[in-house]
Amino acid sequence: MNPRQQIILQLVNDRQRVSVSELAQETQVSEVTIRQDLNQLETRGLLKRVHGSAVALESDDVDVRMMTHFAMKQKLANHAASLVNEGETVFVESGSSNALLAHHLAQRPGITLVTVSGYIARQLKESSCEVILLGGIYQKKSDSMVGPLTQLCLRHVHFSKAFIGIDGYQVDTGFTGRDMIRADVINSVLAKGAENIILADASKFGQVHQNSLMPLSSINRVITDNRLPAGYQQQLMAQGIQVDILSE
Description:
By secondary structure, this protein is α/β, with parallel strands linked by helices. The protein contains 10 helices and 15 strands. Strand 5 (112-115), helix 7 and strand 6 (130-133) form a beta-alpha-beta unit. The mean pLDDT is 89.
């Protein structure tokens, strides 16, 4: 994927639907070139072409999801990394914001990182950071470990902080995930009683998925951006959850 195609994918993921003419204007190339780029991105399963436009896809691919609100996710990850002390052992769940967090943590000596994400483990293979990749069933679509074996592994590792990704949040449902067996793993992490921190851009709030991440009382902190509606912030704080809001 060339730099222009990365810009195109980020624009499409951020706006959900973008016309060919808008993409040509944003990238300062011809519409013919844009159509060629869109054909290549569609062939790779990264977006969908419709008449005169490109639309975003729901994807578990970390590289694809990272292109959505990338600059903000970098800020969230940098802030989350600032909460980790030297010599600490932390759990970092899968997902794009958490992958960026893991990259920040890998630059610092003395930190041990526990994860279920094959993607994160591979990204850190050249770093000096100690990485513990938990075992389990390899879920190919998300590049992460899931299932009863992963939950068993969690019983035998200990960490002081856990950084968790979410797919949705509503006042009446709490935090939710799209995938049932990944949600089961997250719930096992939450049950260990570490300092549990949700790391998610504000686009996830207002969405709802079928798998609950419970209980809400197990969450200590939420790190998100200033697009979060005030009502959600107030409701989270009323539950005793610290909310860190970062500006764009």
